[in-house]
Amino acid sequence: MTSSRPLFKRGRSIALRGPEASPSHLSIASTEYDEDTEENPQEPVEDPHFVTHHMPKGVSEWSEGAVTHLGEVELPTPEASRVKSAEYISSAVRPDQMPQGSMSEVAVIGRSNVGKSSLINALTHKKMLAHVSKTPGKTRTINHFLINDSWYLVDLPGYGFAKMGASKKMEWFGFTSEYFINRESLIMVLLLVDATVPVQRADVECLNWLAEREVPVSVVFTKIDKKKKKVPKPIENILAFEEEMAKIFENIPPTIATSSSTGAGKDKLLRYIASLRRLYGEK
C-alpha cells in the first residue's frame, strides 16, 4: 500500500461547528428502534403485506450502478471485486490481538439489529461466517475476516443496545475508538443504517463522532426490500438521513442501499470496496 490512511478523511469530512452540532438540536426521530422484539412495544411490527422481494420504486439509484467518486477524488476502476474466499481470523479486545501487517481493512459498524451479520454473510457467500443472533448486539469483540487472502472485512461491536440502558448506549466507543483513530490499515468505515425506520439519533451521533475525528466513513443502508407499517417508506428514510449527512459534511460520503435477502446493492458495495483498495495502492 502506498498510502496507509485514506485521502478522503483529511479535509473532506468536516463536522458541524457551533451549537447546531449538538445532538439535542437534531431534527430526528425521538423513538429509538433498537430491537425487533415483542419486548419493545415502540418498535413497529413487520407487516407481511408490506414486505416485497422486488426493488422499491426509486431505491435503485442507491443500489445499482457504481460509486465513481470519493469526495472530489475519482475512484479507479474496480478490479477483483468478487469474493472467492472468506475466513475468520481472530476476535480482539486489544490492538496487540489484531492481525499485523499492511493489508487493507474495511470495518462495518451499526446499531444492534441493523443487519450487520446478515450483510457480511451475503457479501462473502457464507451463511454462518458472521453469527446472526436472535439477541441484537451480541458482538463484543473486533472480529477480522480475511477476504481473498488480500484484505480484511472487520466486524465491530454494535451500538444502541436497548437492554443495556441509555447510559451505556455509546459505551462501545471506549472499546473501539483506538481502532478507528490509530489503525493504519483501516481504509474505510461502513456505517450501516436501517432503511426501514426513521433517522435515529444514535446513527447521527456515530456519524458525527467519526466526522469530528476525520475517520473515513461511507453509509450503507440495509433492509431496503422491506417496509414497516406506520413508518415512512425506505426511500423517504434514506433521503431524510442524507439531509442529516449534509449538515455534517461539506461533501457527503458515498451511500449505498442494500438488501441481504435479495442481494440488492451487494455487487455495487463490493465494487466500491475494490475501487478503494486500488485507490490506496493495494497490489
Radius of gyration: 18 Å
Identify the overall geometry.
globular
Characterize the main sheet: 7 strands, mixed
Mean pLDDT comes to 78
Written overview of the protein:
With 283 residues, the protein is an alpha/beta fold. Helices cover 23% and strands 17% of the residues. The chain contains six helices and nine strands; from the N terminus they run αββββαββαβαβαβα. It has helices at residues 60-63, 116-124, 172-182, 201-212, 234-248, 266-279; strands at 69-70, 73-74, 86-92, 104-110, 142-147, 151-155, 186-194, 217-222, 255-257. The strands form two sheets. A seven-stranded mixed beta sheet has the order 3-5-6-4-7-8-9, with helices on both faces. A hairpin with a 3-residue loop joins strand 5 and strand 6. Helix 4 packs parallel to helix 5 (234-248). It is globular. The chain starts with 59 loop residues before the first helix and ends with a helix.
